[in-house]
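Work Package 4 report. The design task specified in the project plan requires that, given a folded chain encoded as structure tokens, an amino acid be chosen for each position. We show below one input record used in the internal validation round.
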């Protein structure tokens, strides 16, 4: 059996921007690798619009969502509450979704996507969030190794998993950061088959050591289409 997912990310919409997804869905499910908007209302309207075209939307927060918020925890709570009110939307915040043997695990990651010119306090908060996201991702992957109903794991992050996936365009901000791909050390049964991510400004569809890495950022591309991911189970 093949389960299809439409991947989109990095819409970076401003209030009032036009966004129409009618006729563009190619799968039952949609993955959003973060960076919808910095505006809470725009995030909600975009998710509500997309929910008309998919049976399930799996969304992880990006750095753009926190652009105008000094409190990461409070902002996350606001978006969590909002997502619970929108049909077919699941925010991948400390939760795993399993569909027909495919586990979807997501987080921001805060690797290489830290906003510039942060205060020392804000940098400390993001560093703490980065450690927390890596720890969560690692624990989730570890637990899923023994889950009898899970044969494949699809990881969804806003951050780029490792320096290699910048393809020679590695930002200086990640020189002293632990990369997200350290999570692969916990994949003892090789269940991770796909890793979808955002932030990087180019489209990616590459297989490295048996894992398919995919990025499909918008960044004002016109026309812009979803990237379909097929997971065989």
């Amino acid at each position: 059996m093949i389960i299809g997912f439409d991947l989109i990310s990095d819409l970076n919409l401003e209030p009032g921007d036009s966004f129409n997804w009618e006729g563009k869905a190619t799968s039952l499910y949609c993955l959003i690798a973060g960076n919808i908007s910095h505006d809470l209302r725009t995030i909600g309207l975009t998710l509500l619009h997309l929910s008309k075209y998919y049976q399930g939307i799996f969304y992880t927060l990006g750095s753009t969502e926190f652009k105008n918020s000094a409190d990461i925890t409070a902002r996350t709570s606001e978006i969590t509450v909002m997502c619970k009110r929108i049909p077919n939307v699941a925010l991948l915040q400390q939760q795993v979704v399993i569909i027909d043997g495919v586990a979807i695990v997501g987080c921001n990651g805060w690797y290489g996507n830290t906003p510039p010119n942060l205060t020392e306090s804000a940098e400390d908060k993001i560093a703490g969030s980065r450690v927390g996201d890596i720890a969560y991702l690692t624990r989730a992957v570890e637990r899923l190794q023994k889950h009898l109903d899970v044969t494949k794991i699809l990881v969804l992050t806003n951050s780029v998993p490792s320096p290699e996936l910048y393809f020679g365009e590695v930002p200086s901000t990640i020189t002293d950061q632990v990369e997200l791909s350290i999570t692969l050390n916990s994949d003892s049964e090789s269940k991770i088959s796909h890793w979808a991510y955002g932030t990087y400004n180019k489209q990616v569809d590459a297989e490295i050591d048996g894992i398919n890495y995919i990025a499909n950022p918008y960044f004002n591309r016109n026309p812009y289409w979803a990237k379909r991911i097929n997971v065989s189970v």
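The helical segments are 40-50, 72-84, 120-144. Validation will be extended to a larger panel in the next phase.
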